[in-house]
Here is the input.
Amino acid sequence: MAIQIKIKKCFLMLLIVSMFLPPSGILRAEDGETEETGNTEETEETDETEKTAAAQISKTKMTIPIHGAKKKKLSVKNPAEGTVYLYQSSNKKIVSVGEKTGLLTGKKAGTAKVTLIKKGKKKNKIIGVCTVKVKKASITKKNKKMTVSINGMISPVVSYQNSKAGYTYESDNESVVKVQETMKGTGETSFTVMALAEGKANVTVQEFYNGKDTVVGKIAVTVTKPTLATKRITMLKGQSLKISDVITVNYAFTNNVAYDYVSADDEFLTLDEETMTAEKTTTGVNLDVYQTIDGIRSMLGTVVVVIEEENEHTPEINDDSYVDLSDYNNDYEEGFDEYDDNDYYSVGDDFVEDEEEDPDDSYEDYDEYLDSAEHFWNE
Here is the structure.
């Protein structure tokens, strides 16, 4: 009798415990262990992989010129094997697209949508849409002003050039900036824009397309004389430097110019062709800089050279490659960044001017910028 009561009690306890178990009868996994319910971590990872591998359109936004010299193209990311994909334009008068190739051609300024479609047996499926903006030729805000030296070549930068259009250039002050038109053997016309004298001029860029002349924009050109950027340098006694490595000229002539240098006192600073050597310490000896253009020699300016003895604060130098720039006067008119406040500068180091990003986002990539410049010279 006592045994039967114990069995009943045990059965009752098991019944009560089973009421709190999950329907599958298996306890849920803890501490990241997988369950046998089908919602495993392994399945979640598989689903995520499938999601990232799904077919997509290569770009959702693009800007192209009318009849650009370099064709832009859309493509399919993660295409499924054996699947046919097609492209369709919402407005073929603005942008046409190769149905199978995805090659884009701008027809006129405006915006259209290009849809990527997956061909199905019974029903087609939209994979993605790219908004394509077609822009006409223009001169960006960044390129509407430029400063060049006398005798410098001017290359107007026109964004979104139409490869089927012709471009002409006209100066409103030919005594300062002159446009020369040359007929090539192929019958094409090339243009050379030259800065002749100090002053200001406006260069108007016109486009000829479909029988119409359109003003693309104007470029305000300031022509200035070269000036010395370097005003003062410090050398160590016994040090030799190549002069052209440490003397910088603002708006230097781009061609037909030669520079020569004269020391005010050979006792302190001697010159050997293009090299100067610090002989004795001094608080300052003048180095005169001259330029010769078309046989005419003129003084460009004077650099003060301070010569000091080496001391415990002087950094270690190798092959006479250091010059003090603590008093370097970097007065570029274009507003270059000032050098950091370090005492010595290695002549061997290359200084690279920071490239300013185009505020008008005129180019999808740098290749298009190069195409624009190349188009100017190949006209």
User: Anything to note?
Assistant: Confidence is low (pLDDT under 50) at residues 24-46, 318-379.
